[in-house]
Design brief:
CATH topology: TIM Barrel
Structural class: alpha/beta
Strand content: 5-15%
Distance between the termini: 47 Å
Shape: globular
Number of strands: 12
Bound molecules: iron/sulfur cluster
Helix content: 40-55%
Order of helices and strands: HHHEEHEHEHEHHEEHEEHEHHEHHEHH
């Protein structure tokens, strides 16, 4: 039987080779000597499939209000230290326009989880207006938490087509330790929401936290298999960063040291690139927060998306999922210029004006019996 390092060498040279659960845990739990062969294999897979392009997705954090109380998150409902805000549709559109003028063609609207009509209508208005202004030239990704099917259908009708919902961990027992047991934090609901998104034609993204208290490499290997099992199109995986205003802060001694969280995150990116070559994978802000070279390292491990923050400065400092988040204050042109240089330094090509549809989604929709057509939804949207 081939060992994990022999399989990595075979993957690098282009042979079809599957990584078993045992291989995944061995690689995730190995010493630093595994990194070079792993990252080379992931880079070779990337080069052969989606190529060297790096896409930009501008984030607008439209509200930090949230009905949930996740133990790891600074925006949790019961954190009194957060000055809550909600941007109007005009403020969101102004931020998007700035990104569009700088050349960006892909955006992410992110908020805590809120079900109020006003919030959802703001998002719907923004989607409709973006469709009117820019038609098929831009892509809008929504990251608004777990939403009921009727609300997702409302957003689809407004032109929404892309949704990101992180499962955070595929392990139900670990999920239970990270969330209150109060009936509104249910792993099964989150999983069902992801299933609905994917089966009804949405371009679907998910992701996990890496380096959590009590998390094992076995959990992380399970996460990779879960993400492949639900057939995601895009992924964001970041290291866990503690926030002193959250209950999980007390458990920080049960988490790996910061350097190991970074290292595990990079291995997760590389393994997922090998397992799902055609999806989009971002080099997350959390990764860049823990390591000043997180962008370059993430790209070398197999990431192909970089997400500058377009949230207006007066709101930005109040959107703290974790503490110490990098707050880049440069203007967008400077960020793009430096992004090009940083991508170039690891032989990758930043393409700000390419909306960067994942090849995986294009193929998934084209497969017989899949996507919006199969769900009975007319695909009249452009976003
Ligand atoms: S992780 Fe998301 S759902 Fe949970 S408290 Fe934070 S913003 Fe809300």
């Amino acid at each position: 039987m081939m060992l994990a390092d022999e399989k990595l060498a075979a993957i690098r040279s282009g042979d079809a080779c599957d990584l078993s659960r045992r291989d995944l845990t061995d690689i995730l739990g190995a010493g630093p000597s595994v990194d070079e062969p792993l990252f080379h294999a992931a880079s070779a897979v990337l080069e052969r499939t989606v190529g060297p392009a790096v896409y930009l997705r501008g984030i607008v954090e439209i509200s930090n209000a949230c009905q949930k109380n996740c133990f790891y998150c600074g925006l949790r409902r019961d954190n009194p230290g957060v000055a809550r805000y909600r941007m109007s549709s005009e403020e969101v559109l102004e931020a998007l326009q700035e990104g569009f003028r700088a050349g960006l063609r892909s955006f992410l609207l992110q908020s805590g989880e809120m079900l109020g009509d006003e919030h959802i209508e703001t998002v719907a208005q923004v989607l409709s207006e973006c469709g009117r202004l820019w038609g098929d030239s831009v892509r809008m990704v929504l990251s608004l938490g777990e939403l009921p099917r009727a609300v997702l259908d409302r957003l689809w009708a407004a032109g929404g087509r892309r949704f990101l919902l992180r499962i955070e961990t595929s392990d139900r027992e670990l999920y239970g330790r990270l969330h209150p047991r109060d009936g509104i934090h249910r792993w099964s609901e989150r999983d069902a929401c992801l299933g609905y998104l994917s089966s009804s034609g949405w371009q679907t993204g998910s992701g996990v936290l890496v380096g959590l208290p009590w998390q094992t490499v076995g959990h992380l290997a399970g996460d990779l298999e879960y993400l492949r099992g639900i057939d995601i199109d895009m992924c964001g995986m970041g290291p866990w960063i503690e926030h002193s205003g959250t209950p999980l802060f007390e458990a920080r001694d049960s988490a790996p040291p910061v350097r190991e969280r970074v290292s595990l995150t990079l291995r997760m990116i590389a393994l997922l690139r090998i397992m799902m070559p055609e999806i989009n994978i971002s080099a997350t802000t959390a990764l860049q927060t823990l390591d000043p070279e997180g962008l370059e390292k993430g790209l070398q491990a197999g990431a192909n998306v970089f997400m500058p923050n377009l949230t207006p400065a007066r709101f930005r400092e109040n959107y703290n999922l974790y503490e110490g988040k990098v707050l880049v204050r440069d203007d967008l042109e400077t960020i793009i210029r430096s992004g090009k240089a940083r991508c170039g330094s690891v032989r990758r090509l930043l393409v700000p004006d390419d909306p960067g549809d994942p090849l995986h989604y294009t193929r998934r929709l084209a497969a017989p019996g899949r996507g919006a057509e199969a769900s009975g939804k007319a695909d009249g949207g452009v976003l």
